[in-house]
Design brief:
Layout lengths: L26 E4 L15 H6 L1 H7 L3 E4 L27 H13 L3 E6 L9 H8 L11 E3 L19 E4 L4 E4 L14 H17 L3 E4 L9 H5 L11 H13 L8 E5 L5 H8 L8 E3 L21 H14 L7 E2 L9 H5 L6 H13 L4 E5 L20 H12 L4 H11 L36 H5 L6 H14 L1 H5 L1 E5 L6 E8 L2 E8 L5 E2 L6 H7 L10 E5 L8 E2 L4 E5 L1
Parallel strand pairs: 1-2, 1-11, 2-3, 3-7, 7-8, 8-9, 10-11
Antiparallel strand pairs: 4-6, 5-6, 12-13, 13-14, 14-18, 15-17, 16-18
The structure holds 1-O-alpha-D-glucopyranosyl-D-fructose (TEU).
1-O-alpha-D-glucopyranosyl-D-fructose binds next to loops.
Length: 575
Amino acid sequence: MPSTPVPAAVVDPAAATPAPWWTRATVYQIWPRSFADGDGDGIGDLAGIRSKLGHLSDLGVDVIWLSPVYPSPQVDAGYDISDYDTIDPLFGTLEEFDELLAEVHALGMKLVMDLVVNHTSDQHPWFVEARSSVDSPKRDWYVWRPQRPDGARPTEWRSAFSGPAWTLDEATGEWYLHMFAAAQPDLNWANPEVRAAVHALMDRWLDRGVDGFRMDVINHIAKSPASLEAGAAGFEMGAQIHDHLQEMHREVFAHRGDRELLTVGEMPGVSVEDAVLFTDPARRELDMVFQFEHVVLDNGPGSKFDHVPLRLTDLKRSLGRWQEGLAERGWNSLYLGNHDQPRSVSRYGDDGRWRYESATLLAAVLHLHRGTPYVYQGDEIGMTNARFTRLDQYRDVESLNRHQEARAAGATEEEVLETLRVRSRDNGRTPVQWADGPGAGFTTGTPWIEVPASGAEITVAADRASGERSVFDFYRRLIALRHDDRVVQLGAFTMLAPDDERLYAFTRTLGDERLLVVANWSGEPYELDPALDPLLGAALSAVPAGGAAPELVIGNVPGSSGPTLSPWEVRVLRA
Ligand code: TEU
C-alpha cells in the first residue's frame, strides 16, 4: 500500500519524494493449474511452482501474483472458492505453501494472493448455510430476491458466462444472484458481517506473510440498490464501492504501514475517472486497478465472441487516455495477457513469421508505459494461442457455456469453434511449455488440457538457448531497466503520431532526460519521419546537433539504426 504519494511525472527527480516501491516493480502472474506439475497428476501445483522459482528470479520479476489455490470445486478453475483458509489438495498443503512463500521471500520476491470475494463457491459453508432456509442467520450474506407473481427474474442482468445472472433456489423459492456461473453466488457486501469476515480472512493471509492481494472483480461487490430494485437491464456499480474499499484499507492495511504490500483491483468496465478515485493514494483505497478498455476494443456488438479487427489507432487512443488520466493522481497497471485473455502475441502481433519480433515489440511497448507491468506466464517466451479445432479440447466453463448457447441459437459447430479459437480463455490456459516432449516439461503425466502443437518448438529451453532471439532475455532486460531507470519508472508519457495505423510511438520525460519508443506494429517495413521527434531526428542524422548521438537502450533487430524499421521492429532511444 502507498505510504508515500506517487509524485507527478513532471516533478524534478531531485526534488521528488521517494516513489512507492511498485513503481520499480514488475509482477508475474502464475495460473497454477498450468504452470508446472510436481506430482505427475497432470495439474500444476505448489511443488511445481517451487521447482521453477529459478526461472522467475532469472527473469528478475519482483512480485508473483498467484491465481487461486484455495479449496474449490473448480467449476471456474479455482475462482469458485469453498474455503478461504487453506490450500486445495490438488495444489498441495498449507505447509508447502509456507515453504513456497519462504523461498519466494528468500529470492527477494513477493507473493500476492488472489482474493475472490465478490462471490464464493456454492459449496462454501456460508452458502450451504444461507440456502438452507430463508431464516438462516447467513441468509443475508448472499443476494436473494423473492419470486414474483409473474415468475419473472428479479432483473435482466446476464451472467458473464452466458444465461441469466439469477438462479431459482427451488427449496426456498427465492432467486440468488450470480454474476458468473450459477455455482458462484455473489456475496452481499451491504451486510457488515460479510465485510468483517472478508477482512478477517485477509488478515490471516497477511499474518502468514503474503504481500498483498489481486482482488477479483472487486468493483462488482457493491451492486447499485436502485438498479437492483428497478430490475435494471444492466449491472451498475454501487456508490458504496469506495466506502467498502476505504473500510478495507482501514481495517486490514492501515496498521501494516511498515510492510511493502500491493493491492490491485480487477475492475471490468471501470472508467478512467473512477480509476483515479480508486488509486489516488490520498483516498486510501487501492494501489492500482486492472482496467478493461483496451482488451474489449476487438469485441463485437454482442460479446467478446463476436470479435472485430482491432485498429492500432483505437488501442493507442485508449492506452494514451489512461496514461493521461492517471498522470497526476493514481497509478496504472499494464497488461496485455492474463488467464482470461487470448495469448497477446497471437492477438496483437504475428505469431507466425514475426513471432520473436512482435512478442518483443509488445513487451517493450507495454513495459515502457508509465505503470506497473504484469507478465502472464508463458508470455516471456512468446507462447501462442492453442489453435484447438475440436470442442473436446476445451475446458473453460465460459467456452463450454458459450458453445451451448450459440449452438442453441442456431450457430453452426464451425462458427462456434472459430470464435472459440480466437477468443476462448483456454488459449492462455494451456501448460507452460518448458521443454520439448510429451508433457512439454510441464508434467510427466497426462496434462489436464492439451499441450498445443507449438509445444514442440516454443519452449523455455529453446527460447533461452536462442541467444539474440530469446524473448525471455528481452523481457529480462526490460524488467531490469525498470529497476534502475527513473524515466521508465516515473517519466511523463506523451503519445506521438496518434493517427498512424502502423506506428506506436511515445516519449517518456523526466527532468531533462527523455526516452523515445518507436514500434512498427505491422509486417511491412516502416519509414520513420525524422520530424516525429527531435530525439529521432538526432538519432537519424549523420552529425547530431549539439553533442552525443542518442543511445539505443534496447531494440529487437540487432544492428539496426537507419530510418527504416523492419517488420515488427521496436527501438528505444535515450537522450
Ligand atoms: O474475471 C472477471 C471478468 O469479468 C472477465 O475477465 C471474465 O472472466 C471473462 O473475461 C469474461 O469474458 C475474473 C477472473 O479473472 C476470471 O478468471 C473469473 O472467471 C471471474 O473473475 C469470476 O471469478
